[in-house]
Design brief:
It comes from Olea europaea subsp. europaea. It holds the Pfam family CRAL_TRIO_2. InterPro entries: CRAL-TRIO_dom (IPR001251), CRAL-TRIO_dom_sf (IPR036865). This is CRAL-TRIO domain-containing protein. The chain has about 250 residues and is α/β, with parallel strands linked by helices. Strands 1-2-3-4-5 form a five-stranded mixed sheet. The N terminus is likely disordered.
Length: about 250
């Protein structure tokens, strides 16, 4: 009779769309081999926007995905606006993004408190999202003074996936200081409770997306209530009513 092994084993299942690095759950020897092969090249998208000067971010400035606004929120914090749709994640490495964010904060806002207004409207994970792990890494690499001066992150139009990721993994993947600073804003009308109109520029497509969500609120949760747009079909001029006369009773022979 063949002998059976009594070694314990475990199975870890991770959702493929959460952007979680599964290597810590793998065999340690495989992890070491993979890390050696990567040679610290942790980001899978090389930068196709090269610059001869490490401090020359003119190409990123032209994208306008991260900029300092003139206005402030109701607490007096200056506003950094981030438009997720404008960020080409596939062509910018995490290392260059980190340098750009640090340079932007230290040069344009060297002192004083600030907040971040992040617009997630119509963001595509494959095209515009650098990944939650990279965002955490960038935040952790900021000087302690900059992290302390960041007072709030207004997360506009979070999708269902974003809500699930932050609700289930947010406390593990984000430091406590950043996690508790995030405030979800499902509609622009709620943003005006913290920031007066005119203090931050809202792109037209963000306003249009907000209008769509206002008329179809279930879209927030990944549900399209009227995929065929049947509600937009004009009603018929005439309706067909039911016959007034009832069905004639049938007599059955006993």
């Amino acid at each position: 009779m063949a002998s059976t092994s009594s070694d314990d084993f475990s199975v870890v299942v991770l959702a493929s769309d959460l952007g979680v690095d599964a290597r810590p759950f793998l065999n340690p020897s495989n992890v070491r081999q993979q890390e050696a092969a990567e040679d610290d090249n942790w980001h899978d998208c090389p930068s196709y926007l090269p610059s001869s000067d490490d401090h020359d971010f003119s190409d990123l400035e032209a994208l306008q995905f991260f900029r300092l606004e003139r206005g402030s929120d109701n607490s007096g914090n200056r506003i950094f606006r981030i438009v997720g749709k404008y960020f080409p994640a596939a062509v910018i490495s995490g290392e260059r993004l980190k340098k750009y964010v640090s340079h932007k904060i230290l040069t344009e806002m060297p002192e004083g408190s600030f907040c971040v207004v992040y617009m997630h409207s119509t963001v595509q994970k494959e095209d515009n999202s650098p990944g939650l792990t990279i965002l955490r890494w960038i935040y952790e690499e900021l000087p302690n003074d900059s992290k302390d001066r960041l007072q709030a992150v207004y997360f506009i139009h979070p999708g269902l996936r974003s809500r699930l990721v932050f609700a289930t993994l947010g406390r593990f993947l984000l430091s406590g200081g950043l996690y508790w600073k995030i405030k979800y804003i499902s509609r622009l009308q709620y943003l005006w409770q913290d920031i007066k109109k005119g203090e931050v520029e809202i792109p037209e497509f963000v306003q249009q997306h907000d209008d769509i969500l206002e008329h179809r609120p279930l879209t927030d949760y990944g549900i399209e209530p009227d995929p065929l747009h049947m509600t937009q079909i004009p009603s018929m001029a005439h309706t067909f009513g039911r016959y007034d006369s009832g069905w004639a009773s049938r007599e059955y022979m006993s």
